[in-house]
Amino acid sequence: MKKQRHSIKDIASALNVSVTTVSFIINGKAKEKRISEKVTKKVLAYIDEINYKPNQLAQSLRTGQSKIIVFMVEDISNYFFARLARIIEDIAYEKGYKVLFCSNDNEDKKSEELIALFKDRQVDGYIIIPSSGIKGTIKNLLDENIPLILFDRYFEDLPTNYVVIDNEEATLNATNHLIENKFKNIAFVTTDVEQTQMLSRLSGYKKAVGQKQLHEIVLKIPYNAKPVNRKAIIKDFIINNPEVDAVFFATNYLTQDGISVIKEGFPSLLSKLGIITFDDNTLYEIFTPSISAVAQPLEEICGTLMSMMLKLLKKKEDQKVEKVVLNAKLLVRESSLPK
Amino acid sequence: MKKQRHSIKDIASALNVSVTTVSFIINGKAKEKRISEKVTKKVLAYIDEINYKPNQLAQSLRTGQSKIIVFMVEDISNYFFARLARIIEDIAYEKGYKVLFCSNDNEDKKSEELIALFKDRQVDGYIIIPSSGIKGTIKNLLDENIPLILFDRYFEDLPTNYVVIDNEEATLNATNHLIENKFKNIAFVTTDVEQTQMLSRLSGYKKAVGQKQLHEIVLKIPYNAKPVNRKAIIKDFIINNPEVDAVFFATNYLTQDGISVIKEGFPSLLSKLGIITFDDNTLYEIFTPSISAVAQPLEEICGTLMSMMLKLLKKKEDQKVEKVVLNAKLLVRESSLPK
DNA sequence: ATAATTTGCTAAAACGATTTATTAATTAGT
DNA sequence: ACTAATTAATAAATCGTTTTAGCAAATTAT
Question: InterPro entries recorded for this chain (chains A, B) (predicted)?
Fold first, then answer.
């Protein structure tokens, strides 16, 4: 019952031409290779008739091109990454590429395992959110001249292509927005990971409060802390800093923890506190109060990533390293307006 | 500078043995094929030394196994699907499989294009949320004896493996919960797609209100309506049905639309109305009021899917069709409790 | 009429593995 | 001492493409 898959060989023998001829025709090299109009038509017609589709595996083996790219993020179930994934997917499929998505949980071991895995599979290119300690592995990819783009964060001293947003500018603006709306004691809740994106976000906040001579109130939560512990830390922080009238959460899971703590422990604060979060979520819009967010330009990020990738895939040699910095946008909602 | 990738041939010639011998050893058939202990050790040592990894493409071409499975959902950026994807990813990678995720937007054309695409790539198995009109395509996969599991919904008259939840039971319970909490006029907001999951959800609701002799108040929103139009429809519905004291949203994007409409147009209703939504989201917990949700057992669904898939991949012949129905869980939060 | 080109097509190698069939060298059996 | 069985290894076919190198026939040039 199993339907027969056709191969070039089948076509060739059915039409009494050579495999070479068929291959040339399929690959649009008929004219260039001087295959007669007559034969070309015959073959194309037959291909159409039996609905022949080349075996991609064989093609890949021969050409060394798998037509697969890797998109590695922290956690594909996270809203921000999932949105990116979807946009990348659409562009890639349109261009004839398939995408292997994977999550590294921002862990070096996972990142390295995954990269090793993909190498055996002759993946054509990598778009990666690197965990902090895989500079070596990234450098290897670089040395092997494999198409590679980092995004969201990067390594200062590694000449890689990357696409990031101007995190400092983003938090600077957002913090200023809070200041303009009369918030005086703005806390910045972030993690302790020393990656470029987080450092820039912190630095933007510091710049803003510094310029206005306000107090820096920073809470760094250990990256590996479990949700319960993170919440406990935030709760303590709120108790110990009663002067705080606004909170800037540097990443979305912290926002979630923070709001949860406030809702449980200090419900009256929810409408009083100024709140801004980094990375938007559709649901923030329908929160009560709706939550202001720094939104990354998802389409633009993905568009840039993919057009860079396609360029890299075309000609692998002597390409200049491209560093792209895009701008985030502050979505002002109720939570950051005067109360 | 490009690092040389090693092939079996390289190993063979470096050690003065045949390619066959090396292959046997790599595949653990040394004893079975009577390769001497001595040669085996030598080869293994060398493989380890140069860190040889077989070329998966070549392997796949020869064996017909790509070690790739497809996971097709409506939209990978949707929270529910993204969560599933992540869990599937973890299980698959652990078992040596890679996953091609893709989104069909519940459109037949996309689904069919994607499936056609993957066939050329010799994908080993498919886990699919089918759009409503691809019964034919699914049947073809079935006839070709390709490992296939549908989930979330299925075709009544097609003997496919599937994993779904008991939607009827879920909405029946959830509706009863509203009734027990004194809500009398419970609206059910759903879409007009005639797929098994949506029909069952509706039927569970109808059963519940029927048993208690309450009014059926059902709003079916065209699946293809744009968010703006969906909201307009919901708004009209609210205006025209002032008796409604609770709303059951049959799927998560409708919840979003609904809350948005309520927040904008009828803010006082938000705390008065009973609300339940289908499919949970971490953020619902920290909403004000927190939103009660019917939560599907994600881990269980994915675990079942993958163990079924691995079984299918092992021995392709004469397998019984498996139909698994799991139970959802009602997460009771503020929105469905008495006011 | 002969040499040089052009046209139309193809044989065969290659990609990197797996697997079947076979060979050569030992060892065991009688 | 001669056959049978076992051990150790390998040559070659295969998966389905792409691509290089080349051949024969037809055409053009001289």
Answer: HTH_LacI, LacI/GalR-like_sensor, Lambda_DNA-bd_dom_sf, Peripla_BP_I
